[in-house]
């Protein structure tokens, strides 16, 4: 790894050991990580803050074609900035050139976008088909459908967990080709589904409280903006917000997303040690099988 202190990756670990090593790896190298990623994180935070500000403006005040175009541009910019930031983090993990990591992170991001579009398309097609067949379907009639679609989405998300191993293996091993390895590595990840699920579930339990704590100023700003709009539109009160509120909102959003980026690096490191643990277990399994054959 490029100047980062870490434990040996080629070792079979439990989910608690993966979490412990990821925690140690993050905090032992926090200065190096920050010094090499702060610019990327800042760009990501600024673009994400812009996207959220535009989205909130559209929700509270409505918008036309121009705002829709700006939202699309901001969405694409946020995805691109997120991909670059992820590539920078992986550069610190695998030590490979930034361009190489960026290309592979871009491919993985494109795969996630395509999968999301397919899932949304299937859900939309189901809803549209039911509405077309029942001309007078109400929201109450559609409620069971929405529950089923929500349950299906959860099942799909759980079935996607083995791709954590696929993605990390693709980022760590340059000889791997995603098209050729996807099915095989998914099967490997599926055999270790319990390990992946438990480790990531506990990792999220660690990350979510931190993210919520960091997000408190953002929630306060959002609440103030919402109540102001409600008072102006429905009660006729003056706005009550200072003229520099937009600047405060942008600063709070940017700072929140900036910290979020570093909180979520912990999840990347957990996936890194999961990959090492699964790869080691598979290697040991093959060695035992060869010994028994011999």
Account of the protein in words:
By secondary structure, this protein is mostly helical. Helices cover 85% and strands 0% of the residues. It is built from nine helices and no strands. Helix 1 crosses helix 8 (193-235), helix 1 (15-28) packs across helix 9 and helix 2 runs antiparallel to helix 3 (65-94). The longest helix has 49 residues, at 245-293. The mean pLDDT is 87.
Low-confidence stretches: none
Helix content: over 70%
> Mean pLDDT, rounded to whole units?
87
Distinct helical segment count: 9
Strand tally, please? 0
What structural class do helix, strand and pairing data support?
mainly alpha
The N- and C-terminal alpha carbons lie at a distance of 36 Å
Which features does this protein show?
mainly alpha, 85% helix
Write the layout of secondary structure elements.
Blueprint: H1 15-28, H2 30-61, H3 65-94, H4 98-133, H5 139-159, H6 163-172, H7 178-191, H8 193-235, H9 245-293
Helix pairs in contact: 1-8, 1-9, 2-3, 2-9, 3-4, 4-5, 6-7, 6-9, 8-9
In short:
This protein is mainly alpha-helical and 294 residues long. It has 9 helices and no strands.
